[in-house]
Amino acid sequence: MRAEGLIVKGIGGFYYVKTDCSIIECRARGKFRKDAVSPQVGDYVTIDLLDDGTGSVAQIMPRKNIFIRPPVANIDEFIIVAAAKNPAPDLTFIDKMTVIASHKGVGVTLCINKTDLVDNVHEIASIYRKAGFEVVEVSAQNRVGIEELRSRLKGKVIAFTGFSGVGKSSILNLLSDKFQLETGEVSKKLSRGRHTTRHVELLEYEQASYLVDTPGFSMLDLPDIAPEELETLFPEFEPFLGQCRFRGCSHTAERDCAIIHAVECGEIAPSRYENYKTFYQTLKTAKQW
Fold first, then answer.
1. Does residue 274 contact residue 96 with C-beta atoms inside 8 Å?
2. Beta strands per DSSP E along 114-192
3. Are the C-beta atoms of 257 and 245 separated by less than 8 Å?
4. What distance in Å separates the CA atoms of residue 143 and residue 277, rounded to the nearest whole number?
5. Is 276 within 8 Å of 234 (Cβ atoms)?
6. What is the pLDDT of residue 61?
């Protein structure tokens, strides 16, 4: 008998598949090893049900994306959590995560927490709204913005990312009662030692809505792409592409560059453009080596 489901945990060669009826412990068929493919947490799969109540992963459905470290597939949305203050928002980190998301086909919501501590949070928010990203302004302390954030998460597989101290755990506690215990578990996992066992898990906090439980999304590197592709991963550049004087313009120093002109005219945020140039040079140096 066959069933379909979602891999919600994988550890030690076992995969735990959530079906309409229950969670089934499964092994993967040998053909995956032969094909150099392995099931990942987040995969939608077909399984063969065995007489002893376990199963065997028979087929992996087509993926929308996959990450190697952390090993997880089919992420719908990054919630990039930044604090308006204490710590100050790291715009380079935020921009790196938006580039990775654009490359992987992952949606982005920027969640700015601790808005009760500053008066100028709208300046930061406007940078990313203008670039085409969703922004939610939150105060976990005052329980402001939580319902708006929750409404954006329904029916999705979500990865929260952000540095320590920005308030991810406080926000998770407010999003769902289920995290009152599980957020403690997430926090423990975030502080696990280098040599302890790690695994990725999807935590279902309401029907068909999952949080990826892994610290790895705060440590992702820029994608392995050609420097020339980077311009397509900044959505606010799109209206100006193809309008530069020189074909193959890198948008870093050339004369009559439409992107540079857009920055000078206030149509592209200077911080985003400066990070574009930094990322471009990083990718260019990597390709040379």
1. no
2. 134-137, 157-161
3. yes
4. 38
5. yes
6. 96
Tokens of 73: 């597939």
Q: Report the b/e string of 180-219 with b at 16+ CB within 10 A.
A: eebbeebeebeeeeeeeeeebbbbebeeebbbbbbbbbbe
* Angle, CA 156 vertex, CA 161 and CA 176 arms, to 5°: 70
Length of the chain: 289
Average pLDDT of the segment spanning 257-261: 97
The residue with tokens 């149509």 is 267
Give the relative orientation of helices 270-288 and 91-104 as an angle to the nearest 10 degrees. Answer: 60
Residues contacting residue 265 through CB under 8 Å, at least 6 positions apart: none
Q: What is the end-to-end Cα distance of the chain in Å, rounded? A: 52
Q: pLDDT tens digits for 162-180?
A: 888 888 888 988 888 777 6
Q: Where are the beta strands (DSSP E) in the chain?
A: 2-11, 14-18, 23-28, 44-49, 55-60, 66-67, 72-73, 77-83, 107-113, 134-137, 157-161, 201-206, 209-213
In this structure, are residues 104 and 281 in contact, taking their beta carbons and an 8 Å threshold?
no
d(CA 279, CA 164): 23
| Cα separation values, 209 from 3, 42, 173, Å | 20, 12, 15
Among the listed residues 137, 159, 121, 126, the one whose alpha carbon sits nearest the alpha carbon of residue 42: 159
Q: Shortest CA distance to 6 belongs to which of 15, 14, 20, 17?
A: 17
Residues 10 and 26: their CA atoms lie apart, in Å, by 9
